[in-house]
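Researcher: I'd like a candidate sequence for this fold, 374 residues long. If you have to choose between options at a position, lean toward the conservative one.
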């Protein structure tokens, strides 16, 4: 099917793509963001470069089942519960990591007002003038501290995704764009709080694996760990059924702590079905990521997830990746390995090489992880 960008009756009045390309060439703007595209006057259909053909076998989409709900973990019980409640919480975390690779975290220590402020600041960033944002654009390295971009892996994507993003490395060294006003301070505070949350949660996760509480923190060198903010903008799309916000993938790092602006769009794969994640205000959506799967020698599974778009509301999500230090060689915990009964299922690789692999390959799903699988 051929999808045209503008219907023919509008062709004479609408600014056309070539004009847009021309202005890209003549200014400091390096790529066309979805925001620029979505705000073009009279956009009624999407350019063919954004049309996504889905595999119908892939398409079992449902809301969560009452008999198998998305796990909910009460973080406060790790600290203020009775010993029994704490033990049960650790057990539940382990089960969620094993069966879903995903859970919702409630009663955590990050103030609701700070979560809202962070989302507002991200929104304000995306509302800056395009030239101001494009200062951070370019096909750069994974170690570049601030990257503004669009799609998923723009230099590799055959079909583009309906998403603009900014990725910021906030640890071991803190970086931030200077605009909009207040972004830096809010981001710094949000990152401090989520970092603490992630590290505490990883203690519970270590225990759930039968390891010492600080095992992951220590072996993954989290004192110097990489922490990254990936903020995503999904604007309303005129043909949401033909476009995709983010393709199925799993994340690098140990955990991804995701929040959103109250608009749903995340789907996680569970028992071969895409489950719509219904949002609960004030909770973190916690995604088990590839390096936790590797450390656990495959006991815990990084979750395949994707983001769908709608034609109604603008969606913002803010992902916080808690990850090993760049030079850590991530490999299965030796305590969990037995050469006879449970041999290592993954080869060791530094976090930096892993990220490079993700960037330079046209790889979706779990195919980066599959490259280190034995
Ligand atoms: C991500 C991600 C999903 C979302 O940033 O890695 O998967 O819902 N985001 O935006
Ligand atoms: Ni992700």
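Model: Candidate sequence:
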């Amino acid at each position: 099917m051929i999808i045209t960008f503008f219907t023919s009756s509008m062709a004479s009045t609408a600014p056309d793509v070539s004009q847009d390309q021309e202005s890209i060439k003549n200014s400091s703007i390096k790529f066309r963001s979805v925001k620029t595209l979505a705000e073009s006057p009279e956009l009624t259909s999407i350019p063919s470069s954004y049309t996504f053909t889905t595999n119908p076998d892939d398409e079992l989409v449902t809301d969560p089942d009452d008999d198998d709900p998305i796990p909910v973990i009460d973080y406060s019980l790790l600290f203020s519960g009775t010993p029994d409640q704490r033990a049960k919480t650790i057990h539940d975390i382990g089960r969620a990591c094993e069966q879903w690779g995903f859970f919702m975290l409630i009663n955590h220590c990050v103030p609701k007002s700070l979560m809202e402020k962070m989302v507002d600041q991200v929104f304000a960033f995306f509302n800056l003038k395009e030239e101001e944002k494009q200062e951070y654009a370019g096909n750069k390295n994974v170690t570049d501290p601030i990257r503004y971009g669009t799609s998923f892996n723009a230099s590799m994507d055959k079909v583009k995704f309906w998403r603009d993003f900014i990725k910021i490395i906030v640890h071991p060294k803190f970086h931030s764009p200077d605009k909009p006003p207040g972004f830096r301070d809010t981001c710094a505070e949000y990152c401090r709080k989520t970092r603490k949350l992630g590290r505490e949660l990883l203690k519970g996760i270590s225990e759930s694996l039968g390891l010492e509480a600080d095992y992951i923190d220590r072996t993954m060198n989290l004192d110097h760990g990489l922490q990254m903010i990936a903020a995503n903008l999904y604007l309303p799309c005129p043909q949401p059924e033909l476009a995709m916000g983010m393709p199925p993938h799993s994340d690098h790092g140990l955990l991804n702590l995701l929040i959103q602006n109250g608009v749903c769009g995340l789907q996680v794969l569970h028992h071969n079905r895409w489950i719509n994640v219904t949002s609960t205000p004030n909770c973190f959506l916690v995604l088990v990521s590839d390096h936790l799967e590797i450390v656990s020698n495959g006991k815990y599974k990084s979750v395949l997830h994707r983001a769908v778009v709608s034609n109604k509301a603008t969606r913002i999500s803010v992902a916080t990746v808690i990850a090993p230090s760049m030079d850590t060689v991530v490999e299965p915990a030796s305590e969990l390995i037995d050469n006879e009964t449970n041999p290592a299922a993954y080869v060791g690789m530094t976090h930096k090489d892993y990220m490079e692999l993700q960037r330079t390959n046209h790889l979706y799903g779990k195919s980066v992880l599959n490259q280190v699988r034995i």
